[in-house]
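Weekly sync, protein design subgroup
Attendees: M.S., D.O., the rotation student, P.L. (late)

Item 1: inverse folding check
M.S. brought a backbone from last month's batch and wanted to see whether the design step gives back something sensible before we order anything. D.O. pointed out we never logged the input encoding, so this time it goes straight into the notes. Structure tokens as presented (116 positions):
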């Protein structure tokens, strides 16, 4: 799944557009609730090896909030990882190039609900 596909989905479903809050990191984007402004998703472009994978090429990841027990169950270190640069108990990182679209959309919906 691509970052652009996720952006299209959240705009259609939630009316949200990505926010780019960090001038220093122009490729990083936050998905926020329209009313409470809480984050339910964060896009980062990081070196693959930051996920514990081989290689230093840049990859897109999506950080999503999830229930603590679910984060433990989902983590497979191929597609879903402990959250990069977020609370590792309540957030996961998804390697978008490896992710199943249906799974990503379901996890976005869960993250959205958890951050209402």
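Designed sequence read out in the meeting:
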């Amino acid at each position: 799944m691509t970052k652009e596909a996720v952006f299209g989905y959240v705009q259609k479903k939630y009316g949200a557009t990505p926010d780019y809050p960090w001038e220093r990191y122009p490729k990083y984007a936050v998905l926020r609730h329209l009313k409470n402004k809480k984050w339910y998703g964060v896009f980062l472009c990081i070196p693959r090896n930051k996920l514990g994978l081989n290689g230093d090429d840049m990859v897109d990841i999506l950080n999503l909030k999830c229930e603590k027990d679910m984060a433990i169950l989902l983590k497979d270190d191929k597609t879903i990882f402990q959250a990069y640069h977020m609370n590792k108990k309540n957030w996961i990182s998804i390697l978008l190039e490896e992710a199943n679209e249906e799974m990503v959309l379901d996890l976005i919906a869960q993250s959205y609900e958890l951050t209402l």
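Discussion: The chain has one domain: 3-114. Helices lie at 3-14, 68-74, 101-114.
Action: P.L. to compare against the previous round before Friday.
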